[in-house]
Amino acid sequence: MNDAAGEGDTGLAIERTVLAWRRTAIGAAAVALLLANAALHRGWAPAAVVPCAAAIAMGVLAVAGFRRGRDLRRGRFGGAARSMVLATGVVAVVGCLAVLITLIAPAR
């Protein structure tokens, strides 16, 4: 809600944003572990390269999400556009890699 002066309380908005970046980091780390597990079960064949690349990309997203949340907690609000572009790019790359995994994986 807005106060009498017309300025909103940004404290809760920052906290929600920090929690959203934390959820992104945890989700990305979980997906990275699942993709690494898939690569290990396939052996180190050429088909395992795609899940490994996706796992690395999700690891990068996990680190970026953690760092962005930490920066927001410390009052550093710059770099939002860079963080969002990185997150969007990583998710797009992993989505494309997921399509490749589906196409490369043998039917069972």
UniProtKB/TrEMBL annotation:
Subcellular location(s) of the protein: Endomembrane system
Membrane topology designation: Multi-pass membrane protein
Pfam families the UniProt entry points to: DUF202
Superkingdom of this protein's organism: Bacteria
InterPro entries attached to this UniProt entry: DUF202 (IPR003807)
UniProt keywords, alphabetically: Membrane, Transmembrane, Transmembrane helix
Record-annotated membrane-spanning stretches: 20-38, 44-64, 85-105
Record has Transmembrane as a keyword: yes
Residues covered by the DUF202 domain: 9-68
Name by which UniProt lists this protein: DUF202 domain-containing protein
Taxonomic source organism: Nocardia jiangsuensis
